[in-house]
Amino acid sequence: MVLHSTLNATAEGFDWITLGRNIINGFSFGSIYALFALGLVLIHKSSDVVNFGHGEMAMFFSYIGLSLMGLLLGVNISKPAAELPSQLGWEVFLPALLGTLLFAALMGLGIERFLLRPLAKASVLSQVMVTIGIGTLLYGLASWLWKAEPRAYPRIEAVSGPPFQLGELALTREDLTFLSVAIVMASGLFLFFRYTMVGIALRAIAQNPFAARLMGINVGRLNGLAWAMALMLAALAGMLAAPKLQLEPGMMADVAVKSFAAAVLGGINSLSGALLGGLLIGIIDNLAGFYLPDGLRATIAFLIIVAVLTIKPHGLLGKPLPKKV
Amino acid sequence: MNWAKLSAQLHWNYSRWGIILAVLIALPWLITILPFFGINNYTYSQLNLWLILSIVCLGLNLLTGATGQISLGHAALFAVGAYIGGYFVARQEWPSWAALLIAALGTGIIGLILGLPALRLSGPYLAVATFGFSVAVPQLLSRSKELANLFSDTNDVASRIGVFKITKQNLPGFQAEEDLGRYFMFLLIFVIMLLLALNLTKSRTGRAFFAIRESETAAQAMGISLGYYKLLAFAISAAFTGVAGSMYAFQVGQLDANSITFSPMESVLFLTAIILGGLGSVWGAVLGATLITLLPPTITALNDLIKLNFGSSIENFESIFYGLLIISSIYFMPFGITGAWQRLRACRRDF
Fold this sequence. Notes:
Order of helices and strands of chain B: HHHHHHHEHHHHEHHHH
Largest sheet of chain B: 2 strands, antiparallel
CATH architecture of chain A: Orthogonal Bundle
Number of helices of chain B: 15
Shape of chain A: globular
Strand order of the largest sheet of chain B: 1-2
Distance between the termini of chain A: 67 Å
Oligomer: heterodimer
CATH class of chain A: Mainly Alpha
Order of helices and strands of chain A: HHHEHHEEEHHHHHHH
Number of strands of chain A: 4
């Protein structure tokens, strides 16, 4: 009898609707991972640094965005009891977003100029540790300035309408927004790197900074630009994802690992790879979380990172670069 | 067997070592001079944790400092060592020295496996892979029901998922009830590990490690097998960490896979310690571990001072402090304290 019921449960455990829901959810999370991975790729493409503080930076920007929204609505959000409405119109969200993007760009320029440029010739360990240090600092600052308790993040009114129905599958407007933002950003960046002078110069720097400098490219300024763009992407991703993830200083720890996995899977030098990798990681992670025992889900990101790095180190869509000696 | 030769091999300078050993043995009493430490179990447990952290740093420094392979996964290896050591002592009732050896061996093997991607990776990629490892292991240890059952064949209350308790009576080798007694046990292990690390860095293997750090291409050209020595560095480093991990299990008596001690942040702290102390220097690792051990009481004291002056203490002040510490240590002391000291000495010699 017991055996029968367990068999029944496994038979009920699999149906196409659940699979479809998981895949849609995977796309939704995957778009967030893709936006993060795009930033990682952008930084790595130009300055050969992997930004280990990316998640914390995005978290910090989400708080900045929340503060700006509070400022516009006249609520002081550093008070723990402060509550913002759960939905906001464009007239509040857009100025807050623009302000946050400006802040992120300035911070990117600052980090590149004052923290990473002096370390351009230092060991990889120093560069990795500095980005970790920035992340730790921002984590501490965020929990000091805005307290560590999780808080709700307002959604944009226009994208929180009723979901679209595809048969039995519901596709929320929020999921669609994530996906379209990720696709637009990835293709925009792809075109930018392919067809604009600045983009081509950035690619030249990635291949050989010395030769790029000889060709009259201002390497430092362009690296700063790449950092500013990457952090603006992080800010955008953070502000879009915060309602889904619930805002707290540690909210990005999990997302950061998965976006590393996404960047590695797609190829850490490839923008389209970041998009593909992000979506794949999102789907794989959701399916693993549903169909595999709980403990295994945690290791999926790690297993993918190791497998890709060992079998195909430059990722699905990346091209192998000659090793610098 | 010639004693002079043996002492040279061991880098055994009698008078210097005599002083060091005397200080280490007298340390539980000497340390009470410092403001934070009184004659109590807290002091002794801090000393024990210091010895444990020192052994981790010795191991990590062989890998990251000497061989130049970044590892953000040492907190996870530490957890593996702690769980293996704890399992064999608490569940199999093995004597603790045997559990310690098994933990060293087991963690060494895990480290070897972790090192496999390192054969093809370098720099930030290795950091990404090991970071993934250090996120995965605690979650695996805390969430997996299979693993929890593995640790709880006697389904008692203490062994709920992810939390693993070692009671005092099933620590056969460590009958010393007090932390002070355990200090001398740990000191013995620490001195052995210190000698191992000192001699390893001066040996053929150690020179190969340093050669790989300076230039993989050049090392390969000199006939050093990159794969063999990288894997060896990973295995040795992991074994050191495994020993420290099982010592940690004996010290705290209860393991929680979700605790901060096994989180990726702890790996960062280990790296900060060896950077502060001096990459590649054995004594630098011990010095770095000392600084990191002294930090929490200092941070609390600082925060109290802030509270006194500004009315309220800063929440999560330690994160802000650690962030600033990591950034500034890389900026102002890239070669750590031992490096700064050597540079100072070189300056004095030159003038």
